Amino acid sequence: MPRNDPAPDAPAGSAPAALHAEGVGFGYDAGNPVLRGVHLEVRQGETVALVGRNGCGKSTLLRLLAGALRPTSGRVLVGGDDAARLGRRELARRVAVLHQALPPVPGMTARQLVRQGRFAHRGVLGMLRDTEDATAREAMRRAGVEELADRPLEALSGGERQRVRLALALAQDAPVLLLDEPTTYLDVRHQLDVLELVAEFAERLTVVMVLHELDHAARYADRIVALREGAVAADGPPREVVRESLLRDVFGVRGRVLHDDRLGTPYCRLDAPV
Ligand SMILES: Nc1ncnc2c1ncn2[C@@H]1O[C@H](COP(=O)(O)OP(=O)(O)OP(=O)(O)O)[C@@H](O)[C@H]1O
Question: Per the structure, how many domains does the chain have?
Fold first, then answer.
């Protein structure tokens, strides 16, 4: 399903942006900046794809938007509140993250991992109520991993594990979903399954996802933000951002941008490195 209708401009005095990076700078080591002055405002209900070359700072920006890293300059607002001032539980209630492949904990089953997504909703004694367990089960059903529930994570294929991680993020039931390369390890059928599932959720959630496939970004995002060397190089709807100049300047590739009349979105034919 193409999802390129831009979210309507927020009228003055309406709800705050779901996420707002205000002039964010960050470096893992002093004197070695990874992000420089990044401005990014994501409105509620938008689906934004973050694209760019390896190492340009996409995952780092996602971690900052999730409040898992603190900016060295600027600030990140989540639902209008400074992420640095929100506790871990409150952040987890507001933002769910599907991280790039993390090593599985030995012996942990898929069900146990997905149930961890409910931690922010547990009572003071850490008990999981029946309704919470039902939410975790529903997340597994939506991600198509019910039959994997009792398998240890280390015994799953990369693609199966990726879908379990998606179920974990869905189980968190947060209004903002951040996905770091959600299609990694997946065959083409499962890539589309996951992106269609995300599109379904995106109808009521705010989604920011790191994608390497520009064609997927053009098809499934309302807006594409391209990073180059830690700064925003392009930001706008796919038909404005996906251009031959983007392929050349951001990705270092010569290619053609074509238009898919059926989907109504641009797509790329890549020719050669520049
Ligand atoms: N934990 C870390 N400690 C130190 N440097 C890091 C750490 N994580 C990432 N970096 C560095 O920060 C830079 C940006 O990394 P990041 O993972 O954000 O890039 P990316 O755009 O997501 O890359 P990719 O497309 O390869 O996943 C890279 O130079 C990387 O080596």
Answer: 1
